[in-house]
Amino acid sequence: MDVHYNKPVAKRAQFSNCFLINVFSLTHVDKFILCVNSPKIPSIILYGQIIAVYYLKNLRMAKRILIIDDDEDILDILNMIFQDEGYDVIISNTGHAAEYIHQINPDVMLLDIRLAGFEKTGAEICRDIKNSYPTELFPIILVSAETNISLIASYCGADAFVSKPFDIFKLIKKVEELIPL
Length: 181
Fold this sequence. Notes:
Rossmann fold, globular, 10 strands, alpha/beta, ten-stranded mixed β-sheet, disordered N terminus, 2 domains, 26% helix
């Protein structure tokens, strides 16, 4: 594998510099945009989708949480909250991140049911993950304003659910309950 990057391609409001990264392997080239605030806190945004990976300020092995929600405000809030709790947070505003579950390897996933502009619902994504990886531990918490969220969670095999609007302390507790030791 060979990695190349170019001169800064953009500056975004929340980042100081963004670089186009090409990762060459024997079979393909992955393109990433690397946005950096400082050398200590890099963010990786998958080219064409939003998947931000934020590294903790300290280097201890943090538990990783994948949050998929089409509401950018919810993503920002949950990102800040779980970073403050010490989690390695990966956020996505589309369901495409679920296709990379083995690369992301989350300890727990928060998944909205309604994902605007995506061909599958969160319940379908959940069911696909649970059917495709029945022996692997990918705890999924559905987070939604759906009135029948308990039935949907049962149908798709979710490990838990939290109704929107949610109590953040209850959500944190639910995440802590599902993360393997």
